[in-house]
Amino acid sequence: xxxxxxxxxxxxxxxxxxxxxxxxxxxxxxxxxxxxxxxxxxxxxxxxxxxxxxxxxxxxxxxxxxxxxxxxxxxxxxxxxxxxxxxxxxxxxxxxxxxxxxxxxxxxxxxxxxxxxxxxxxxxxxxxxxxxxxxxxxxxxxxxxxxxxxxxxxxxxxxxxxxxxxxxxxxxxxxxxxxxxxxxxxxxxxxxxxxxxxxxxxxxxxxxxxxxxxxxxxxxxxxxxxxxxxxxxxxxxxxxxxxxxxxxxxxxxxxxxxxxxxxxxxxxxxxxxxxxxxxxxxxxxxxxxxxxxxxxxxxxxxxxxxxxxxxxxxxxxxxxxxxxxxxxxxxxxxxxxxxxxxxxxxxxxxxxxxxxxxxxxxxxxxxxxxxxxxxxxxxxxxxxxxxxxxxxxxxxxxxxx
Length: 401
Ligand code: DP6
Known about the structure:
By secondary structure, the chain is an alpha+beta fold. It is built from eight helices and 17 strands. A hairpin with a 5-residue loop joins strand 13 and strand 14 (312-317). Helix 1 (79-97) packs parallel to helix 2 (128-143) and helix 5 (225-247) packs antiparallel against helix 6 (251-271). Pfam families: MDD_C (PF18376), MVD-like_N (PF22700).
């Protein structure tokens, strides 16, 4: 974008998605470069329901790099933020010194203003750092005119962020090099590959997680021999099985691996010393309910997975969504029936048989605050409409109220 009246040399706005791992990343072999001890695989969630939006501007009039997240200024000196900024500026300088004729070098030495918002509550424990760092890196690259592979930079913001750089089904190949150059995300299948697949985020609690992933996995690497076994012997086999299940759209195989891998991740948390508990009573009830439901039908129709918090993410096929939602509504009766319980993609109302009402334990009223109904979606996108920029023409955050 050409230089504006207030000296903005470049400005860009992008959006990026949340992803949910079905083969979990847990544990680093290099904490600074964020290199994992095992590969992982995730599904990128649709940005219509969950996304981060980021605007970045450069200007010769900016005194220093600054960042605002969800309306509040944050510390730009955060080491992971600095890694991403440094890596992008390094690539931009390299392009200039390589003499790329298409490069507009205005703004290369300028400071940046970064403004970012989520369309979902950060405190809901929904992998906001993955979408946040993916969006930061994608937008920085746009502002500085870089078209390189970016997942290795997003990875240095937050490991799981590298998988948010692509849509659909994405693997993060752990790599083996010490410099991390081969530790990259790669799309396995695009978001259009399995249109029947549906995803339900069951928000069990709006509380912040007790132990963050970064410190939790650090303690696990130090103390859990189950984690070592998992990384060396279990995950490599599961990655092959999961890629095959996704490619063949084999729901029972996909679902079984997803549940087993979530359970093993939480088992490694329990094997950590002192142990880490991310699941609560509601999470345990959901696990129980999914198995009872599948058992009732004699086939695997629904799968759960849990990250470093109590929220369940459910995978199922379109044809089973409405009934399973009624099951959830029955066993976790919401406070009100005003339709606010289900957000996102519309869900038809299906009657619930008396038999299905018997499959679970005692209902837990208000155990789930709401459900986000979504599906697989695309990777980061550029927002072309200049009215959508979060920074004004003066380069400062627009007033929202
Ligand atoms: C349980 O990517 O948040 O969600 O690399 O330290 O930032 P850092 O950790 P982070 O860990 C995510 C862990 C997980 C599993 C997963 O997403 O694969």
